[in-house]
């Protein structure tokens, strides 16, 4: 009844064409044919599933109450009914590692979603994860570790034409935060990592260079507190980065300075 109340409130805006459709998020094990018929009749057009991991042992140890097969079954059913499929995954879960996250990404790619969201795990107060952390049984990712991994994951998804529509949590209650890779600009940090890799690859030998990127991407290419410039300097590359309106996103031009 509560679900129908919410859908009814939103559906009137579909009816008067204020919006084109409704996007919802739910658990994989909450999806069945009856639910999908109801959602379709109320103007829902996109369904996101909280997959989190495709490693059954990780799902079990994090008390998710479902399996990777539940994600596969629900995803296929959603697509069969004509909804846009979105999938959500988490990195740094208890008992997980980078290899597990990469495996999860590969499994999600195989389901051919339209969109993906990636959330690094954050430890919050009054949770089982906090107890594990306090007792030294769980070590959360650092911001740098999460950003490096998420940058790799974004590349994997985008290479297959899957749009990553969110990196990291929008916001959290500061009083609830205990540990983990939360940063207000986490998405930009991930993109900065990608620019670092692109620039490093474009530089042939140690020396001084002027590097050009799209003007709107300048801050990402430079990195927070000039992190990319400093990292490259430590590798023997003295660079300055400039904006160029003629370049596309992630397009790099390099000019060696004699």
Could you give a quick summary of the protein structure above?
The protein is of the alpha/beta class and 258 residues long. The chain contains ten helices and ten strands. The N and C termini lie far apart (72 Å).
What does this structure look like?
The protein is an alpha/beta fold. The protein has ten helices and ten strands. It has helices spanning 2-15, 33-41, 56-61, 68-80, 98-110, 128-134, 143-159, 186-202, 218-222, 227-234; strands at residues 22-26, 44-52, 84-91, 115-120, 123-124, 163-167, 177-179, 207-213, 237-243, 253-256. The strands form three sheets. A five-stranded parallel beta sheet has the order 1-2-3-4-6. A three-stranded mixed beta sheet has the order 9-8-10. β3, α5 and β4 (115-120) form a beta-alpha-beta unit. The longest helix is centred in the middle third of the chain and has 17 residues, at 143-159. It is globular, with a radius of gyration of 21 Å. The model has no long low-confidence stretch (mean pLDDT 96).
